[in-house]
Design goal:
Elements: E1 3-4, H1 12-28, E2 47-54, E3 59-65, E4 71-76, E5 81-87, E6 105-114, E7 117-124, E8 128-136, E9 144-152, H2 155-173, E10 197-202, H3 219-236, E11 241-244, H4 254-263, E12 268-275, E13 285-290, H5 298-301, H6 308-311, H7 322-351, E14 357-365, E15 377-384, H8 388-394, H9 397-424
Parallel strand pairs: 10-11, 10-12, 12-15, 13-14
Antiparallel strand pairs: 1-8, 2-3, 3-9, 4-5, 5-7, 6-7, 8-9, 13-15
Helix pairs in contact: 1-7, 3-9, 7-9
């Protein structure tokens, strides 16, 4: 669902190792990797719908697609615009809806710029920049989507971005985006930043309230409030792409939550919860990773047609033997559990001076949402809705600010550690 533009992530080196390992193993087994097939324009997805919402502080473009695709973004001036190009076969929109709200974007258009390329052109009411852009895989009854978020900026920064995109287009493609007429140029410069994708999972939702406090506060509301604030804090750093498994009071199955992280190759998955316990004196925050000795429910995670070949998609071939698949899955499990533990430690280290923690705050359990074998995953228990002190804290804005900021620092520390480890790896 939430594939980030250019997100390489912290596990790239490990997966490169897997690819090399697999090719070598297959060669020893006498299996020759097949050449990748060339994709024709007819194989590109269609643009099914588009919509824009805008306020003075933020704007969001959502493009519905018949399947995931590649995209590029360029900033243009005279007038100030942002062009979003996607590889597409056809635009099926008769007339896009008007901009919802009044703010950064005054109008927009969606049309085929040339064969195989659809362009959405956002006309800006005032200078703005792309804060994040990511492709979302189709899930349940929702189509694949491209999401682009804009935030305001000053004229000088906007003009610098126009110049940078122009230079990148010349250097990378040999084509220049038009910046002085109403007709945008032929090519959009690709987004250059490579940022880790963090997927936040607000626990429960919809018909599932989760735990409830005596005063009627539900866990599903607590976790969503924390997730939205944490997303904002992380995105404001400019170092991460951040997406939520749900942004409102929606119900998702545990399988769907895990699938969203896996399908979009998240670099870190964080599930947020605020549980209850029969002993009201139990309180404090803690961070869970998957229990090494827990009953293996990988088969449940991989239900509905998924199997070991899907786990290593892009690194394995259908001809590979079950023995090779078992080796690769085991390697991936071990690496992800190690990364998950490092993430939990980094988060707890930052939480410790800020909030009350449980004894031995880094814990292990067999939570279903931690079962992804290819995504580092942790579950953060923010506190207990069965404890009066925790209930008061969870509803207090100052306490929430401290926790959110600590979580953000812990996430940043984790990625700093992984990047340093990757830099010194042989």
């Amino acid at each position: 669902m939430l594939k980030s533009a250019g997100s390489g992530g912290n596990s790239g080196g490990f997966f490169e190792f897997l690819a090399v390992f697999l090719v070598a193993t297959l060669c020893l087994l006498g299996v020759t990797p097949a050449l990748a097939q060339i994709v024709s324009v007819e194989d590109y997805p269609d643009v099914m719908d588009a919509r824009v919402s805008a306020t003075a502080e933020r704007a969001r473009l959502i493009i519905d697609l018949s399947g995931p695709t590649e995209f590029a973004i360029a900033t243009l001036d005279n007038p100030n615009r942002i062009a979003i190009d996607v590889k597409a076969f056809e635009v099926k929109i008769l007339a896009p809806a008007d901009v919802a709200g009044d703010g950064l974007v005054s109008s927009y258009s969606v049309e085929m710029a040339e064969k195989g390329r659809a362009r959405t052109l956002l006309t800006l009411a005032k200078p703005a920049l792309v804060q994040q852009a990511y492709m979302m895989e189709a899930v349940a009854d929702q189509p694949a989507r491209l999401v682009v978020d804009l935030i305001p900026t000053d004229e000088m920064t906007f003009n610098a971005k126009v110049a940078a995109d122009l230079a990148a287009s010349v250097a990378n493609q040999g084509a220049v985006p038009e910046t002085t007429s109403t007709d945008p140029g032929t090519h959009a410069a690709p987004v250059a930043e490579t940022r880790p994708l963090v997927v936040l999972d607000p626990g429960h939702g919809g018909i599932d309230n989760g735990a409830s406090a005596p005063n009627g506060v539900h866990e599903k509301d607590i976790t969503l409030t924390f997730a939205l604030q944490l997303q904002k804090v992380l995105m404001e750093t400019g170092h991460f792409d951040v997406a939520l498994t749900r942004e409102d009071d929606a119900y998702l199955t545990l399988n769907q939550r895990v699938d969203l992280a896996r399908q979009n190759k998240a670099d870190l998955f964080i599930s947020l919860h605020a549980d209850s316990f029969q002993e009201p004196e139990i309180r404090g925050a803690s961070v869970y990773t998957r229990d090494e000795n827990a009953t293996d429910v990988l088969d449940k995670v991989l239900a509905d047609g998924e199997n070991r070949y899907d786990i290593v998609a892009g690194f394995a071939l259908p001809q590979a033997t079950p023995a090779v698949m078992d080796i690769l899955v085991d390697l991936m499990r071990r690496e992800m559990r190690k990364s998950s533990f490092l993430a939990a430690e980094a988060i707890v280290h930052q939480l410790e001076p800020s909030v009350a923690l449980r004894r031995f705050p880094v814990r292990q359990a067999d939570f279903f949402v931690l079962q992804a074998p290819d995504v580092p995953s942790v579950l953060v228990e923010l506190g207990f809705l069965s404890n009066a002190a925790d209930i008061a804290n969870l509803q207090q804005s100052d306490w929430r600010d401290r926790v959110v900021n600590a979580l953000a620092r812990g996430i940043a520390d984790y990625f700093d550690q992984t990047q340093k480890s990757a830099a010194v790896a042989p």
